[in-house]
Amino acid sequence: MAGLKSWNEIAPPHLDIVNGSFDEALFAADLGLVSKGEGPQDYLDAQLFVEKTYLTANLRTALVEIGNRLAGNPAAKAVHRMQTEFGGGKTHTLLSAYHLFGNARALSRTRLARQLSSSIKDGRLPQATVVVLDGSALTPDRTKENRSPARTLLGHLAFQLGGQEAYEGVRAEDEARQATSTAHLVALLKRYTPCLILMDETLEYLAKTITADGDQGALTTNTLVFIKELTTAVANTPGACLVATLTASHLEDFTGINHEDLLERLAKIFGRTENVITPVEGDDIFPVLHTRLFQSTGTPAQRRTVADAYGDYYAEQFGDALPAVYRDPVYRDRIEAAYPFHPELIDLLTHRWGSLSGFQRTRGALRTLAHSIKALHAEGRISPLIHPGDIPLHDPGVRAEILKITGGSYLAALNADIIREDSRARIEDQRRGGEVEKLRLATKLATTAFVNSFGSDKVPGASDAQMTVGVGRPGLSRGALEDVRDTVKNVAWYMRYEGGRYRFTTEPNLNKVIVERESAVPEDAIAELLEKATKSVVPAASPWRTQTDVLSSADVRDEPRLTLALLDPEHRVEPSDPGAVRDAAHRILSEYDQSGRTNKNTLVLVAPDTGALGRARALARTLAAMRELRDDVHRLKRFNQEQQADLRERVVRAEDRLPGLLTTAYRHVFLLANGTGGSPPTTQHLDLGLPRASETVTSRVTERLRSGDGLLDRLAPAALLSDRFDLLPADVEAVEIEDLLKAFRRFPRLPKLASVEVLRDCLAEGVRRGVFGLVSGATWQAADAVIRIGEEISPDEIDFQPGTWLVRAARAQALRGPEAPPAHPSDTSSPRTGTSVAHGTREPTTSEVPAPRPPSAGPTGLRLHIADVPADKVRDVVKVAVLPFAAQGAEVRVELNVSVRSSKPIPPHVIDLVVEEGLGQLGLRAETHEQ
Q: Most-buried pick from 358, 440, 661, 843 (CB within 10 A)?
């Protein structure tokens, strides 16, 4: 397989794994049994146990801290709480402490002891008296199983510390089932230091006290009081250390118990003095599994060779079809660390299955993998790694582990689609033959979907990426993998494909019937569905006129109105050749039929993505087939009511999904840009990315253009005079406003205006502020021309007809003269008529008409203070008060003071996301002060 050795040639399993003689009890350590001298020899024999223990970084930290506490280091934490999911290494950590500090002298020469001693006070492991209070092994009464005269945790503690003599000191409280005082406990502990107290399955013991107490609650309360006093006493006794686990593995056995309340009370008790221990975290589990299952995992060079081969395979065969995480160099490191397992398999077992009741992360993973390795080794299956799809569901041991979490109802699905020789996937392998049959590719794909069908994820099942990494290996082509995957989806009787996920259910599906119908769906039916759905995702909404199916320049009119046009599917964007569509879009944007397009800045085109459009077409075909089946009354009678309801739901879901898929497909925006300095405009390509729920193509294009100032709802008056817009060259004093409007419609170097009112409002504001003047007349220099500057003017008075000019402020002021009265809108007889700008004759006072500042007298520096800006106006403030200065070539610096007030506490991760990550990515920093 691409020259790579099979995993079992490099990583030989332990002999007991290969021959199947391993004891499953080895994967289920029990502290209580070990303390009584019972259980597998691997756990009872301290020497053997430490030799087979892999020291993770977190486990080392925990054991060093415990050792320093026992050695008398006052800085070491006294009380430790194990925080793990079930199967997260808590019992193994407790056993490590039990053996190392209970047999310190005997184990002092072991590798594990030497690794720890250098970091512990006095350079050696301290020998301690070890007390085991295991809630699963103890009962709240005097029984033979307790191997102690005690009836309470207090009594067990004293008896294990100092035998009968120590017990006599607490007999009265123990027989009365009462707690004692903190001072009494401190005195007891001091007598036997160094001492290590290990509490396991604490919540289970509390559940037993409720049952034993007849639900009266006194015993439970006294037990909680004792635990509280014990944590305080240990914290105040040098050389004493307490390590506890609060959760229980079998609380389902105690029906009616309020586990959450008990756990919350325990957590509060330990929260006062605790140090949290997480022994196995993240990829720590890789070496733990290796130690338990394999004699060795090869050399670093061998593992790296496999990791690089997979990394190259993912990048070259799949590219962007796989999420970036699988193509990142870091993932190669994970493959090397997890070898011979694929990291996806371990993540599946420990994270996805590990969240299920009845499946303990490390223990369950070890049992499942042990049976899998045994079966794969016996069958001689060749593969560089063990993938999720390689799990041998036909093996009785593996199947038993899986049915523990899935329930027996899935056995029918396994038999029909995966396990038996006549299963749907096996038949497909045989039908194809060749490499597919040799790899059992269809079976592996079905297996990948099955094992991904369970877990706490909101959307169960395997994604396309998970199906790919579940079976894909160097030498297997992408085309073959995806072809077989799609076929399995269509032939399996219990596998469904919903929401982009492949998953198994306990009910047969409708796939086969629907697929048969799909082949008979005519192309015109698909086209009709796509046409209707496409129109729904590009609604005509301000400021756009919209249309679809644009194939050539003649299909879209040359109008001065903003037009959003969807290109015909023939112009779909291929990832390998996006330039072809760009060239076609440029012709449509630049030309109209056989001549040049005049309004080049009013047209925006959107082209579909090939992959997304293909998915939309496939869904439209399926939808047409499902509708036909739904309306076929005779055929529908063959399905039960639930299946008929399922079909109706599928139709509704497909109808709902189709517009969303088309919104996703139409993501490539093309528009003309630049064209400065006399150079011809170029075609700009914008990728809108994936849409949010309820978005349309129209809303996405609008928001994207607005966010980049390519579409303006407001225009600063100074922008009309800026070098960036180049509407009024330095040697020109005036320009007709009709030409200004035409420029915004014709020249792609300018932003698009959401409406003509944007320019009207801009002109009115510019006149009011004296930025420029408006002059109406036969010419702007005519003696009888009407001049407006430094006064209020209504936008409704402005009409874009010949005869009205925008004139530079200094020139307009000079034309009006110092004594000339400004026009006033109150005397206008008819607003916005002909070419005139309405005016009056009243002479304004000095206070009414501010004298405009000549351009040459402007300041060279300016500081603005803008207070109390709400969050939703920040972008607008930047547009109107920052960018215009930058557009003039000025150096602009902004200092922000952000004040935040919230009725609820602001989560720290939100603050970190804003201050550290968000601003950090912009190369900025912020000083944060809590108020």
A: 661
Q: Which of 741, 858, 737 is nearest to 793 (CA)?
A: 737
* One-letter identity of residue 926: A
Q: Which helix (H) or strand (E) holds 556?
A: none
What is the SS3 assignment for 573? strand
Could you identify the residue written with the tokens 């046009």?
A: 565
Q: What HEC string does 308-347 produce? A: HHHHHHHHHHHHHHCCHHHHCHHHHHHHHHHCCECHHHHH
Long-range Cβ pairs for the range 634-642 (8 Å, 24+): 635/513, 639/510, 642/507
According to DSSP, the β-strands at 595-596 and 591-592 are antiparallel
727 and 720 Cβ atoms separated by less than 8 Å? yes
- Sign of torsion over alpha carbons 62, 64, 65, 70: positive
- Give the β-pairing of 79-82 and 240-245: parallel
Give the position of tokens 């991904």: 452
Residue from 67, 39, 51 nearest 127 by CA: 67
Q: What is the pLDDT of residues 623-673, one digit of tens each?
A: 999 999 999 888 888 776 767 888 899 899 999 999 999 999 999 999 999
Using the predicted structure, report yes or no on whether residue 728 has a pLDDT greater than 60. Answer: yes
φ/ψ (deg, to 5) at 420: -75, 160
What Rg value do the Cα atoms of the chain yield, rounded? Answer: 39
What is the helix (H) or strand (E) element at residue 281, kind and residue range?
Answer: none
Long-range CB pairs of 885-892, under 8 A, 24+ apart, other chains included: 887/718, 887/719, 887/722, 887/723, 887/724, 887/725, 888/718, 888/722, 888/723, 889/723
Query: Rounded to 5 degrees, what are φ and ψ at 56?
Result: -75, 165
Q: Are 804 and 787 in contact (CB under 8 A)?
A: no
* pLDDT value at 208 more than 90: no
- Paired with 806 in beta bridges are 735, 774
Angle between helices 441-451 and 464-471 (to 10 degrees): 130
Helices (H) then strands (E): counts for the chain:
42, 20
CA–CA separation, 430 and 476 (whole Å): 17
Q: How far apart are CA 517 and CA 636, in angstroms?
A: 13
Q: In sequence order, which residues have a C-beta less than 8 Å from that of residue 790 and are 6 or more positions away?
A: 767, 768, 769, 770, 813, 822, 849, 850, 851, 852
CA distance 287 to 282: 11
Burial (CB count <10 Å: 0-12, 13-18, 19+), residue 337: middle
- Measure CA of the first residue to CA of the last residue in the chain; give whole Å: 63
Look up the pTM and report it.
0.49
Answer whether residue 202 shows pLDDT above 60.
yes
Q: Whole-angstrom Cα distance, residue 472 to residue 10? A: 20
| Beta carbons of 625 and 517 less than 8 angstroms apart | yes
Strands 274-277 and 79-82: parallel
Name the residue among 510, 517, 522, 486 with its Cα closest to residue 625.
517
Residue 6, both tokens: 């099979």
Name the 3-class secondary structure at 645: helix
User: DSSP assignment, residue 827?
Assistant: G
**pLDDT tens for residues 384-395?**
999 999 999 999
**C-alpha span between 473 and 389 (Å, rounded):** 11
What beta strand segments (E) does 168-273 contain? 195-200, 240-245
Which conformational region is residue 124 in: left (phi greater than 0), alpha (psi within -120 to 50 degrees), or beta? Answer: beta
Report the distance separating Cα 6 and Cα 96, nearest Å.
35
